[in-house]
């Protein structure tokens, strides 16, 4: 096991990784921006390094500063959490060139899977089912029109380099396709530096189901069951549960086995998530593989008893997988919701501010992952996630009731601060959701109901202001320099 790990992230995931390291006797280095100098991860770390000012491009996306901080503090490995540089193959390669273990898949695997078109081609070769559409990217609008005509409308235009719910446009008619194609390419170029797109059939009545996998560097792998993540706004998740409800046992088995086969076929290592759309007939369609720990990993931990961050650390240290498939058993139901500092009544716009009151819920089988506290200033520079509330119960109705009870206890207040708690409680009360008959269209339906039935026209999914931008260009090994002098503290 490593002696010291640098955590290249912030907020609740930095705190989550820090706690796992401490439980394993691993010292931690937390890098931070000037805006996060007094955050809980910084307070609890063994060592800290300030790597830049508040904007993420100058701090959490500053690969040079992070690598130099690791070198100066003697860290042996870098845990990227999720977001920021967690799926950046260039950053993983820079770490390797500087003698650092990147806690995640090899750079070449990440690079292949980050390109959605390449990932689709690889998974098709591995026998995974794909949504009808193009496997290759489409360089002209004529190509897109041809594919859309073959698969039928509605279709979705997707950026090959997209992720995090960005770079997608739903198109419902042939007349709207040329403009949507051009807009998506333009937005993808700005957001990802890559304007390549592809087109696939848009499944309107589908569930978003994913499978958690763990693979080591010795060719071993296991799956840890499914999660349903169909409750989404702007293609970003709000409520997640494990296992995925109301699906036949054969469908769940197929998803899990197919996901693990796909991951192993490309030499995946570490903790990853294989995502699918499941239609009304329970046909499964591969979406993508995420090369990092997911925000929603707590629900899998709660139904399996497996600490996924512990396993990440052991796998990265070269230890053969400590789990066998037959040893993994799912018990009960876990449901998680994200408490975002956003206003659902105004398009889920971020509402940053200082917390005057902050009292998370408690009680049996209730887990809260958060970096918030009274007096905490929620910055406009970063993602709006403030907390995750996850609960476990023997069955789904009890789990939903427990989550609703917990959210009713959660007291968050501050000038101008709004959260998604009231909206999530509406989701929990929805009859279709209660019966597990919901699809990815649930949030849009609830918003339309509140607006009196009006629905907004399809448009390019915007990038939230707080979502980190892509990483800067690769930094040559051995030539890194901090954006500003580090401030270190050793406990």
Helix content: 25-40%
Q: Structural class, from secondary structure content?
A: alpha+beta
Low-confidence stretches: 454-487
Strand line-up of the largest beta sheet: 13-12-9-10-11-14-19-18
Q: How would you portray this structure in words?
A:
The chain is α+β, with helices and mostly antiparallel strands and 491 residues long. It is 31% helix and 25% strand. The protein contains 15 helices and 21 strands. The chain has helices at 11-23, 40-44, 63-73, 89-97, 107-114, 116-125, 141-151, 177-192, 249-265, 297-304, 308-316, 396-409, 421-429, 431-434, 442-450, and strands at residues 4-7, 27-33, 47-52, 77-79, 101-102, 155-163, 166-171, 197-201, 207-215, 221-233, 236-242, 270-278, 284-290, 333-340, 342-343, 349-350, 357-359, 366-370, 385-393, 411-413, 489-490. The strands form five sheets. The protein has an eight-stranded antiparallel beta sheet with strand order 13-12-9-10-11-14-19-18, with helices on both faces. A six-stranded mixed beta sheet has the order 5-4-1-2-3-21. Strands 7-6-8 form a three-stranded antiparallel beta sheet. A hairpin with a 2-residue loop joins strand 6 and strand 7 (166-171). The longest helix is centred in the middle third of the chain and has 17 residues, at 249-265. The radius of gyration is 22 Å and the shape is globular. It starts with a strand and ends with a strand. Residues 454-487 have low confidence and may be disordered.
């Amino acid at each position: 096991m490593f002696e010291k790990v640098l955590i290249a992230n912030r907020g609740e995931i930095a705190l989550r990784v820090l706690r796992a390291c401490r439980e394993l006797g691993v010292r931690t280095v937390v890098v931070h921006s000037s805006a996060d100098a007094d955050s809980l991860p910084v307070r609890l770390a063994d060592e800290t390094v300030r790597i830049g000012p508040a904007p993420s491009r100058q701090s959490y996306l500053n690969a040079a500063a992070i690598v130099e901080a690791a070198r100066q503090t003697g860290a042996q490995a870098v845990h990227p959490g999720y977001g920021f540089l967690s799926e950046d193959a260039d950053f993983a390669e820079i770490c390797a060139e500087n003698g650092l273990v990147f806690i995640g898949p090899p750079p070449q695997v990440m690079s292949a899977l980050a390109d959605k078109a390449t990932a689709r081609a690889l998974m098709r070769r591995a026998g995974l089912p794909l949504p009808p559409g193009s496997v290759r990217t489409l360089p002209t609008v004529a190509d897109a029109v041809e594919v859309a005509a073959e698969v039928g409308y509605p279709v979705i235009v997707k950026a090959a380099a997209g992720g995090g719910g960005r770079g997608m446009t739903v198109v419902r008619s042939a007349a709207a396709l040329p403009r949507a194609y051009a807009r998506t390419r333009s937005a993808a170029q700005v957001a990802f530096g890559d304007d390549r797109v592809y087109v696939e059939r848009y499944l309107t009545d589908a569930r978003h189901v994913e499978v958690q996998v763990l693979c080591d560097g010795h060719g071993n792998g296991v799956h840890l069951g499914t999660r349903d993540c169909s409750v989404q706004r702007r293609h970003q998740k709000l409520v997640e549960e494990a296992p995925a409800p109301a699906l036949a046992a054969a469908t769940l088995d197929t998803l899990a086995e197919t996901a693990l086969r796909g991951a192993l076929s490309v030499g995946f290592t570490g903790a990853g998530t294989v995502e699918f759309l499941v239609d009304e007939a329970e046909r499964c369609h591969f979406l993508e593989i995420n090369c990092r720990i997911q925000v929603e990993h707590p629900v899998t931990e709660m139904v399996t008893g497996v600490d996924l961050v512990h396993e990440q650390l052991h796998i990265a240290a070269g230890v053969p997988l400590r789990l066998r498939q037959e040893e993994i058993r799912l018990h009960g139901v876990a449901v998680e919701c994200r408490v975002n500092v956003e206003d659902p009544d105004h398009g889920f716009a971020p509402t940053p501010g200082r917390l005057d009151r902050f009292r998370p819920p408690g009680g049996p089988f209730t887990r809260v992952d958060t970096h918030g506290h009274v007096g905490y200033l929620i910055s406009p520079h970063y993602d709006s996630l403030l907390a995750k509330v996850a609960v476990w119960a023997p069955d789904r109705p009890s789990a939903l009731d427990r989550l609703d009870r917990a959210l009713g206890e959660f007291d968050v207040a501050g000038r101008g601060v709004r959260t998604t708690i009231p909206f999530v409680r509406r989701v929990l009360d929805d009859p279709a959701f209660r019966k597990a008959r919901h699809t990815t269209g649930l949030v849009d339906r609830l918003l339309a109901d509140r607006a009196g039935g009006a629905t907004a026209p399809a448009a390019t999914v915007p990038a939230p202001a707080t979502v980190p931008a892509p990483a800067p260009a690769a930094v040559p090994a051995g030539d890194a320099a901090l954006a500003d002098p580090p401030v270190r503290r050793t406990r």
